[in-house]
Amino acid sequence: MAPNEIIAEQVLREIVKVNDPIFTASLLDEKNEKESESQQIEKENKEYEDLIKQPFLKRNDIKWMNLYFMVVLHAVALYGFLTFPYLEKKATFAWCWFLAVVANFGVAGGVHRLWSHRAYKAKLPLRVILMFCYLTSGQYSAMYWIRDHRVHHKFSETNADPVNSRRGFWFSHCGWLTMKRHPEVLRKGRQIDFSDCYEDPVIAFEEKYFEILRPVVGFLLPTLVPVYFWNESWYWAIISVVFMRYAYSVNCTWSINSFAHMFGSKPYDKSIAPAQNFLMSLATGGEGWHNYHHVFPWDYKTAELGNYITGVNLTSFLIDQFAKIGWAYDLKQPSKELIKSVIQNRGDGTHPEVEVKPEEKAN
Ligand SMILES: [Zn+2]
Ligand SMILES: [Zn+2]
């Protein structure tokens, strides 16, 4: 017990002993306050649980504008994918592909591995590059992303997880963006420390000018490039960059919360939902080795096995190149012994190199 707590404990005993009505009353008030707070939390949680059982259109937790944008985005993107003249407009198609790769580096290497997990450190020029790449993704502010992601890791598969996969595939994929948050997400989110992010001037700058940066870097500049450099029509530039590329890109990011929390093997910890998913790694430059990532979130590679090609880990390749020039440093990885012992004790037996302990396998 800390010295302050010992003193408080002694004072409390004294007060009870003298039976002072004022002190006793204030103690009771405090107790009542705590009780009413926990009752309030219980009530809010109960209300939300009841709400999500109601038919979709009758619920009042739907963010209708977000839902509307999501439907329009996917409808136009689908129309684009079906009608885009791929053979005629190779440069525009390649540009969209390039944008998706750049955006993914900003998401995977920036807001995810660097800022959410501090899995490595980056010098200012690299942090600026990562933030620029992240902004091309057109997703919400970096601070929001980091906050959601840290809460997701700490409270995975609970009501406090913003993308709780126990609420179904649709919710964890993109439904969560169209609904008000569960009260637990906000409550538990307050327990997480983000002081490191507030101290980073790159994040502070992005946060301050986000309303301008998002439309300009995420949509306007990427659309202007094909129009001005190879005379693409405005029509196809907008359909491909704003709708097709954006829909593809965000769906790749969302898939980690849905597909990679539902489908795949669990060689590192069979008791958790996140799984190893090759296709998701392919789509996100190495982010789909999700069973490993949830067990060792501080590993800058988010994967144990495979090289850049077999592990489809473009993000690690890029971080390693920046490490060669000293812009990325302090790349963190768990020891081989730790990984091995975790696999032996908690794995599902699918690891190609390490076997689980026999008694664990029997369970
Ligand atoms: Zn996850
Ligand atoms: Zn993560």
Mean pLDDT across residues: 88
What is the approximate shape? globular
- Helix vs. strand class: mainly alpha
β-strand number = 2
The percentage of residues in β strands lies in under 5%
Q: Which ligands accompany this protein?
A: zinc ion
Calculate Rg over CA atoms: 24 Å
| Helical coverage, percent range | 55-70%
Largest sheet: 2 strands, antiparallel
Annotation field: number of helices:
17
Task: Tell me the layout of helices and strands.
Blueprint: H1 3-18, H2 21-51, H3 64-83, H4 90-116, E1 121-122, H5 124-136, H6 142-154, H7 169-173, H8 183-189, H9 195-198, H10 201-208, H11 210-229, H12 234-257, H13 278-284, H14 290-295, H15 314-324, E2 328-329, H16 336-346, H17 358-362
Antiparallel strand pairs: 1-2
One zinc ion (ZN) binds at residues 112, 116-117, 149, 153, 293, 297.
